[in-house]
Write a structure and sequence with these properties.
Organism: Spirosoma utsteinense
Number of helices: 2
Keywords: DNA-binding
Protein name: DNA-binding LytR/AlgR family response regulator
Distance between the termini: 15 Å
GO molecular function, one term: DNA binding
Largest sheet: 5 strands, antiparallel
Strand content: 35-45%
Structural class: mainly beta
Strand order of the largest sheet: 6-5-4-8-7
InterPro entries: LytR-like, LytTR_DNA-bd_dom
Helix content: 10-25%
Number of strands: 11
Length: about 130
C-alpha cells in the first residue's frame, strides 16, 4: 500500500545557508560538501556511509551520532537506528507486511523501523499535505 508519492518539495525551506560538512578524505585532504546534496547516511558499526545525490558513497570513521547535530533537523529524518534520510529526496512512503519502506528519487529503498513508522509518516506529512 502506497501512502504518497512526491517528486517536488518546496524550495523556500532549502537549507542553503546551512554550513557545509567538512570531511577529511585520504586522497584529497579536508573538503567541504553541501548538506543539501547528502541523500542519506547509513551506519555500520562505528562507521557511516554517506550517500550523495551524484552517486558517490563515502565510508567515514564516525557514527551517526557524530553527524546528526551537523545536519538541519527540518530536512533530515531518522528512519531506523542505523539510517538518516534527507526528506528532499523522499519520493514515496510505503507500508508493507514486513514494515515500512521509503523510496528515494535516487532509486534506493530504505526500511523504516516499526517503532518510528508513525513519527516518520507524520514528519513527512508536514511538508507533503497530500499524505493527510
Amino acid at each position: 500500500m502506497t501512502y504518497f508519492s512526491s517528486a517536488s518539495v518546496s524550495a523556500r525551506t532549502l537549507p542553503t545557508d546551512w554550513p557545509p560538512l567538512k570531511l577529511y578524505l585520504r586522497e584529497t585532504g579536508r573538503q567541504s560538501f553541501s548538506v543539501a546534496d547528502l541523500v542519506y547516511l547509513q551506519a555500520v558499526a562505528n562507521y557511516s556511509w554517506l550517500n550523495w545525490v551524484d552517486g558517490r558513497r563515502m565510508l567515514m570513521p564516525r557514527t551517526l551520532k557524530y553527524y546528526s547535530p551537523k545536519l538541519p533537523n527540518e530536512w533530515f529524518i531518522r528512519l531506523h537506528r542505523n539510517c538518516v534520510v534527507n526528506r528532499r529526496y523522499v519520493e514515496r512512503l510505503e507500508r508493507t507486511e514486513t514494515g515500512g519502506l521509503v523510496h528515494l528519487s535516487t532509486g534506493d529503498v530504505l526500511p523504516v523501523s516499526r517503532r518510528r513508522w508513525s513519527s516518520v509518516r507524520r514528519q513527512l506529512a508536514n511538508n507533503m499535505p497530500h499524505l493527510n
